[in-house]
Amino acid sequence: MLRDITIGRYVPGNSALHRLDPRTKLLGALVYSAAVLSCSSFISMSAAGAAAAAAALISKIPVSYIIKGLKPLRWFILFTVIINLFCIDGKILWHLGAVHITYEGVSAAALLALRFIFFVLGTSLLTLTTPPIALTDGLARLLRPLKAVKLPADDIAMIISITLRFIPSFADEAERIMKAQKARGADFGSGSMISRVRSIMPVTIPLFISVFRRADELSLAMDARCYGKGVRNPRKKFFFGRTDAYFSLIMIIFCGFLAIIEFFN
Amino acid sequence: MIEINGLCRSYNNTEVLKNVTLSFEPGTLTAVLGRNGSGKSTLARHINAILLPQRGYVRVDRLDTSDDSLVYDIRERVGMVFQNPESQAAASIVEDDTAFAPENLGLDTDEIIKRVDTALRDAGIEHLRKKPISALSGGQKQLTAVAGILAMRPGYMIFDEGTSMLDPESRKRVMDCVIRLKNELGIGIIWITHYMEEAIAADRVIIIDRGAIKADGTPEDVFSDTELIADSGLELPPSARLCMRLIKEGFDIPLALTAEDCAKEIHQLAQRLTEEKR
Ligand SMILES: Nc1ncnc2c1ncn2[C@@H]1O[C@H](COP(=O)(O)OP(=O)(O)OP(=O)(O)O)[C@@H](O)[C@H]1O
Ligand SMILES: [Mg+2]
C-alpha cells in the first residue's frame, strides 16, 4: 500500500513532458501548486483538474499508476474532510443533536480534498517525468541567483531533490519492516485506535535507523565521487526549446483563465 | 603510490587505528582482512580523505590528505566502492549515474561522454546503460558503482566489502571484473573483506586486528601462519584447513588455497603413497 506512493518516483519515458527542460517543469509545478491552493470555486478547481488530467495523459504514464499513488493518502484526506464537514457554520443541511453538516461545510471539505489531490498530482507528475539528478541540476540553476546573497544554492537544490527521492525509499522500507513484523505476528490492521498506534511504534524506530543509515551511506558515496568540488557541469544540457515555450504559454493562459474565473466569483 | 605513515585514530578514547604504517602500489591487488570492528573501514576512509589523520600522514601520489585544497584531487585518484548496492546510486539511470562523478569534476561535455562510454565498457555493463538502476540485480548495481568510479579515471580503487551482500555468482562476476581492471588498466586495488576465500586471488594480503597490522605478505605466506589467523578471528578457507590438518598428521603436502589446487595436491599425495606401498 505504502509502496504505491508516487511522489519522488521517476518513471523513465520519452513523452513531451519527459523531454521538457527540468526548469520549465519545476516552475510549472510551482505555479500549478500556487494556482490550486488559491482556487476557491468549483469551476476553477475543475479547470485545474482538467489541466492535471491533460498533463497525466501527455506523460504516457499509466493513469492507474498515478491514481494508485493517491491511495495511501486517503485517510489523511478523509480526516481533513471530516473536520471541515462538521466544523463550518452556515446553512444547515442535516443535523443530529449538536452535530450538524452545513452547505458551506460540504463545499469547503470538497474543495479542500480536491486541492490536496491536485497538489499531490502536480508534484507527482514533476518527479515521475524528471530524473532526480536533472531535478537537482535544474533546481540548482534556478536557485543560482541566491548565491549572490551567499546562500548555498547547490546544497539547497540537493537537499530538496534528495528529500523527494527519499519519500519512496522511506515508503518501501516501512513496508519491508511491516512485513517482517507481520511475519513475527504483529497485527497492524485491527484493534482499537490505541493498539494500532502502539503496533506502529516497533516499525517507526527501525524505519528511522535504516533510513538514516541509507542517507549516511549515500552521502559517503557522493563524497567519494567528488560531489561538492565546485560547479557541476551536467552532461545533458538544459535547453529551453519550442515545447518549453508552448508549455509556458499554456501555463500563462491557464493562470489567466483561473484568475478571470476567480475574479467573477 | 599510497603511503600511510604512523596513522592513528581514536573515537572517545578508544584507539581504532594504532600507528599504522603501510604502502600500496598501483597495479597490485591487496586484500585487507580483519574481523568486524578491526578498523578496516576506518583505514580505508583515511585513504580517500573522508577521514583525516589525527596523527601521522596519508599521501596519495605524494598528495597529503590533510591539505584541504587537495581533497578532490585525492578522491579523483582513489575511488571507493561501498558495501550496500542499494545506497550508492546518485542517479536513476545507469549512464546518468556513471556521468555523476565527471559532472562533479566540471569536465567538458565531450570529455564526460567519452568517459562514460569507456567506463561502462571497462566495467562490462555497456548493455545496461539505459536501464533504471532499481531494475538491476545486486551484482549489476555494484558493477554500476564500479563504472561510476572508473569515470574518474582513478589510479586506485578501494572496495569496502564490496561483494559481501552479493550471491556467490555475482560476487565472482564483480571479482573477475576487478582483476581485469588491475591487469588491463593497472589500477591498484585495495580489497577489504572478512572472507579469506576472496583473498586467495590477491597479490598481497594484509591482516589488521584491533587497529594494528598483524601480517603483510603473499597469500601463501600469510595463510600458513595458522596461529596468527586464528588469533585475528579469521578462518582459513576449507581447502586450506584440510591441508593444514593433513600437514599436522605428518603428510607431506603444501598449503593449497583453492579447491582445485587442493584436489590436485591430494591426488598427487595419494599417488605417491600407493607407489611407496608397492
Ligand atoms: N564514527 C564513529 N564513532 C565512534 N566509533 C566508531 C566510529 N566509526 C567506527 N567506530 C568504531 O571503530 C571500530 C572500527 O570500525 P570499522 O568500521 O573501521 O571496522 P571494520 O573493520 O570496518 O568492521 P566491519 O567488518 O564491521 O565493517 C569499531 O569498534 C567501531 O565501533
Ligand atoms: Mg567496515
Structure description:
- Chain A is mainly alpha-helical and 265 residues long.
- Chain A has a domain at 2-130 and 237-264.
- Chain A has helices at residues 16-19, 22-38, 42-59, 63-68, 74-87, 103-129, 132-143, 153-183, 193-224, 242-264; strands at 92-96, 99-102.
- A two-stranded antiparallel ribbon of chain A has the order 1-2.
- In chain A, helix 2 (22-38) packs antiparallel against helix 6 (103-129), helix 3 runs parallel beside helix 6 and helix 7 packs antiparallel against helix 8 (153-183).
- The model of chain A has no long low-confidence stretch (mean pLDDT 84).
- Chain B has 278 residues and is of the alpha/beta class.
- Chain B folds into 2 domains: 2-236, 3-Layer(aba) Sandwich (Rossmann fold), CATH 3.40.50; 237-278, no CATH class.
- In chain B, 41% of the residues lie in helices and 22% in strands.
- Chain B has 10 helices and 10 strands.
- Chain B has helices at residues 40-47, 71-77, 94-104, 109-122, 138-150, 168-185, 219-224, 226-231, 238-248, 259-277; strands at 2-11, 14-24, 29-33, 55-60, 63-64, 78-81, 156-160, 188-193, 204-209, 212-217.
- Chain B has a 6-stranded mixed β-sheet with strand order 6-7-8-3-9-10, with helices on both faces. A 4-stranded antiparallel β-sheet of chain B has the order 2-1-4-5, with helices on one face.
- In chain B, helix 3 runs parallel beside helix 5 (138-150), helix 4 (109-122) packs across helix 5 (138-150) and helix 5 runs parallel beside helix 6 (168-185).
- The relative contact order of chain B is 0.14.
- The model of chain B has no long low-confidence stretch (mean pLDDT 91).
- Classes of the chains: A mainly alpha (265), B alpha/beta (278).
- The interface between A and B is medium-sized, with 25 and 36 residues.
- Magnesium ion (MG) is lined by residues 40-41, 160-161 of chain B.
